[in-house]
Design a protein that fits this description.
The complex is a heterodimer of chains A (113) and B (361).
Chain A: H1 3-21, E1 39-47, E2 50-51, H2 54-61, E3 66-69, H3 73-85, E4 94-101, E5 107-111
Antiparallel strand pairs in A: 1-2, 1-3, 1-4, 4-5
Chain B: H1 5-9, H2 19-34, H3 37-40, H4 61-78, H5 83-99, H6 107-120, H7 129-147, H8 150-153, H9 156-165, H10 169-175, H11 182-203, H12 208-226, H13 233-240, E1 252-256, H14 262-271, E2 277-280, E3 289-293, E4 296-299, H15 300-309, H16 312-328, H17 333-351
Parallel strand pairs in B: 1-2
Antiparallel strand pairs in B: 1-3, 3-4
Helix pairs in contact in B: 2-6, 2-13, 2-16, 4-5, 5-6, 6-7, 6-13, 7-11, 9-11, 11-12, 12-17
Classes of the chains: A alpha+beta (113), B mainly alpha (361).
Chain lengths: 113, 361
Amino acid sequence: MTTRFKVGLLFLAIQVGLIVYARFIPERFFCWAPYDIHSKYEIQTTINGKLLSSTEAEQRYNYKSKGWEQRSIYNIISLVAQYERTYGANDNAQVEIIFAVNGNPEEKWTLKP
Amino acid sequence: MRSSPLGRLLQFEGTAMLPNVLLMSKLMVLLLLAYHFFFKIEDPFIPFFQFLDVFNQAPGLFKWGLRILFGIFATTLFLNIWVRTSALILGAIVILGLVASKPLFNNHTFICGCALILAGLSNRTQPPLLLIYQLALVYLGASLNKFLDPDWWDGSFMHTWLFEARENPFYLTVSQWFPERYFAIFLSWIAMSSELILGVLFIFKRTRNIGVWIAIIFHTILFTMTAFKFGHFFQSLAILLIAFLNWPKGAVIVQFKSGSLKLLRLIFSWLDWDQKIKWEGNLSSNNWMVLKTKDGQQTNHKALKDLILYTPLFYISLLGLDMLLYLIFYYERTLLFILNLIIYWGLIFYFFPSLKNQPSK
């Protein structure tokens, strides 16, 4: 077994580890979970009392602010939360993500300053 | 001409990779370029590892550094220079690009990165087992995620996706024939079971070929029902399956009756940039064509099919045709869908192995 092959096996083993790890967190990144959750969502971001438009929200997070998401909704929640914790920390934004997963009753995730 | 840099673009023999793995790698990079991955490489933005934000202290360094490296190693890969190192670095760039940006993450790009990395870790003396295990892992991971989600057991995902999100005509029509959610549940369990079966089939050598055909038919049925390629996952998978081919080592000898097959020989003289095919016009049997490799021989139509499948330009032409049709019929999506269906199902029916005319040693 060559060194390259062993490195390749390690690369695959890391992916197996990520698949197992995904069982314990709500996000679904790098765990081969394509198209197994379909969520309708809308991101509403308010800064200094002003609700951002869809376009402004998309520009802020570099991701569509409403529509259908074919991966875990927590992928979107994760990126919004990280943005507001880092780049947007001084904006004191209040964010609500309203979503419904796989046709189930609507839920809301809220981030306050 | 064939030894020129331009010729090297279309040659796949004599490198540190198996010819079909090199072909897969080049096509994967072409696919990434066609879907603008190069221009999607940006400075870190909401990265998975926050330490990458340090690159934002020097705007453009990360972005242009990766883009320049991508350009360099895509060039070396296409020119058959340091092919394994090039594939490895290109795959790493793809994954690093995804790791640097949560909004950019998607599975159809991730599989490209993984395939390139594992191609770079392969060699030309062993089958590309790492690539095979990668595909098995994709299907096993996908099926595990679904089997552990109750919304897949009761059809909730399938109904939400096909009925509410996509208003899929096929689903809207057929689901009315059955009690509520029955069709969604049926489709859900077919999908889950298929992915699990595929993952298992790919692990074992004896069942790999069956797995390849089931994967091709499964995804083509999925495309036929939904008119959706899941980003470019459909194309990524098809390209990855090239690595599964049992590519003939050494020359491919084609025997024919003297004076016959003139058009075929002319066409393949244009296509055979590796000069792998040796034509021998001394066939005396009742067959009109015999193809011989180290693994055995085929006759007539089976020989012609294998000859096509062993020709790299066939796959390059298919990808080129797929892209060209997309550009030409961009505003005529129904017509594009129909043309895609004709081509994909036509290829499946033509190349589907028959039980007759098994390879003989």
